[in-house]
Amino acid sequence: MAELVSMRKAYGEALVQLGERYPEVVALSADVSNSDFSYMFQEKYPERFYNVGIAEQALVDVAAGLAYSGKIPFANTFAFLFATRALEMVRTHLCYGRANVKLMGAYAGISDSFDGPTHHSISDIAIMRSLPNMTIVVPSDAVAVARLLPQVAEWCGPVYFRMNRNEVPTLFDEHYAPQIGKAVVVRPGKDVTLIACGLMLSRSLEAAAILEKHGLDARVVEMHTIKPIDQDAIELAARETGALVTVEEHTILGGLGAAVCEVVAERYPVPVRRVGLPDCFAETGPYDKILERYGMSVEHIVSAARAAVEMKR
Amino acid sequence: MHYHSEALIRDLSAKAQSFRIQVLKMIFSVQTGHLGGAFSASEILTCLFFHHMKIDPQKPEWPERDRLLFSKGHACAMLYTAMANRGYFPVEELMTFRTFNSRLQGHPDRLKLPGIEMPAGPLGHGIAVGAGMALAARLGTGKPSSASAPSAQASKSRIYVIIGDGETNAGVIWEGAMTAAKYRLGNLTVILDYNGIQQTGATADVMPTEPIADKWQAFGWHVQEVDGHNVGEILNALDRADEVHARPSIIIARTTKGKGVSFMEYDHRWHGMAPNQKQYDQALNELEEGLKLWQN
Q1: According to the model, what pLDDT value does residue B152 have?
Q2: Contact (Cβ atoms closer than 8 angstroms) between residue B68 and residue B60
């Protein structure tokens, strides 16, 4: 079992480093800085940190004002609040106005499991993906956070960065060199391709090991950038393996699965199965148990892969 | 506080009235737009663009400029008119308002038209976005550190925000108000175009806002009240607001929606209606008569 490392701690450390490198980087939080770990930036750079209180609409608007004046604001709060409570601010200023704000979505997916469905973020990718000019990045482990965050700072335009609350398995080492917009082939394979993001990448790798025992050679692709999505990598996987499975900690409507289906339908139609939360709210409970009960276990990925391969014939 | 000569006041008042005529022509020509709230904001915009703000229309990106956030974006016909006459773009371009391919979008677009500081239309954004700009000005462009206090490098630029009174129904207005007070943003001045009317009726009926001055005082703001069509009062209040430190300022400008046209004043139906030929002729006549008062 891979070592478990906190994604949010890696985020806090990476943010402090950005503060050192870029004087124009500022950070904001809606009074959850000890949850989202932006408190680490606050301790180092108090004059560049703003707590706007429990006011997510102001969080995004104040960040937009800072961005319009040339700063690079990192706005922090729970992922679902950016995508729902503050959505109009995101659309009007970040997307239409091109305010260079980086939205740091904490506690995404089901990871805030015990706080229940009010706090689960299951529609954020779908919502953000529909907005022109938005870029969506989903790191898969703590190493990915550290590697991708500097690119987020340098990226021209708004970014939605979606992170997990919990300690997650470390998948990557110092050789991992992701680029925003480019998929990463984590495991080669020829029979089926598992395209995953976030925590579900580690589960997809587990599934690939099981599939190997069943005689299926599964490719695993990390799609850390959901928008703009790497269309060439998807088409290549479709051509070379003939069947795809998308794996995400998100509703199966409108997220990574939908993005992949759109590309496949237009460029190289092959069977696709989507693993994710069905069209429902989950419930309060242990993280792993919820993922198992709501369609996101390793076994669900294995079944989906076998079904997709079956459909090839 | 500066001395404002009678000549200056007459000149700005005449400009404000002439801008109403231009706005009427724009909206009549394209048969879409918002007259009432444009007419109520004319003197406020004129005082800011033609006297008070430190701006250079030839350099709309000048980092040290003062910034105007026109939060009540639906009334942008007046914003465009003030900007064109100030030299941001050719006055002839005003007649492209709300037409295809125009830089003068139905609501302001900062990427299309230089000088627009933020997109506006969905109401309520101005104060919170303005607070962000005021914080950025305080940080300045330097690298703050314990060795050099941020204030040493702070920009002198000030942030001005024009909001409507119907707009104060929106919760984010008050989120922004609390943020600006918490961070003691003395470089932020809000002008409330308090015309008393919103889309479906009187503000007092739709969503009562009184006691408005008490509300802002309770939120920690420096509050002034002026006649929003009296140029001298507006100029004095803007000067006074600049002198307030460690608190954001609001100028409650009592205005008349549809100001200058008898049948539009106080009538909520003129929030977003375009005049027909007969109405246009009468409105033009009344506005031109009003202009003569300042020109004689």
Answers
A1: 58
A2: no
| Tens-digit pLDDT profile for residues A103-134 | 999 999 999 999 999 999 999 999 999 999 99
Encoded tokens for B79: 């914003």
A93: closest chain B residue by CA: B119
Closest among B178, B173, B133, B177 to B157, alpha carbons compared:
B133
How far is B47 from B44, CA to CA, in rounded Å?
Answer: 5
Q: Is A85 on the interface with B (CB under 8 A)?
A: no
Host domain of residue B220:
6-295
Q: Is residue A142 part of a domain?
A: yes
Instruction: Tell me the nearest-neighbour CA distance from B149 into chain A, angstroms.
Output: 9
Put simply, whether A73 touches B (Cβ < 8 Å) is: yes
Sign of the torsion formed by the C-alpha atoms of A107, A108, A111 and A113: positive
Residue B214's domain is classified under what CATH number?
A: 3.40.50.970
pLDDT at residue B151 in the model: 56
Neighbours of A307 (CB within 10 A): 14
Q: For the segment B113-140, what is each residue's pLDDT rounded down to a tens digit?
A: 999 999 999 999 999 999 999 999 999 8
Instruction: Assess whether A129 and A210 both reside in one domain.
Output: no
Query: Is B173 part of a structural domain of the chain?
Result: yes
pTM: 0.96
Residue A95 at interface with chain B, using a CB cutoff of 8 Å: no
In the numeric block, which tokens belong to residue B221? Answer: 């703001």
The residue whose two tokens read 């790191």 is A139
Residue A33: name the closest of A78, A84, A65, A66 by CA. A78
Distances, alpha carbon A282 to alpha carbons A118, A122, A204, A295, in Å: 10, 9, 21, 10
Confidence band of B142 (pLDDT split at 50, 70, 90): low
Across the beta sheet with A225-227, the strand order is: A49-51, A25-29, A72-78, A102-106, A159-162, A135-137, A225-227
Please write the tens of the pLDDT for every residue from A36-87: 999 999 999 999 999 999 999 999 999 999 999 999 999 999 999 999 999 9
Instruction: Return the structure tokens found at B247.
Output: 């608190």
Range(s) of the domain holding residue A288: 184-312
Q: How many domains does chain B have?
A: 1
Could you tell me if A45 and A73 lie in one domain? Answer: yes
Q: Report yes or no on A174 lying in a domain.
A: no
Give B121's contacts in chain A (Cβ within 8 Å).
92
Chain A / chain B CB contacts < 8 angstroms: 107
Shortest distance, CA B6 to any CA of chain A (angstroms): 36
A74 contact partners, CB below 8 Å, separation of at least 6: A15, A18, A25, A26, A27, A28, A38, A41, A102, A104, A153
Tokens 């303005």 label which residue? B130
Q: Do A92 and B172 count as a contact with CB atoms less than 8 A apart?
A: no
CB A141, CB A149: distance < 8 Å:
no
Nearest residue on chain A to B148, judged by CA atoms?
A47
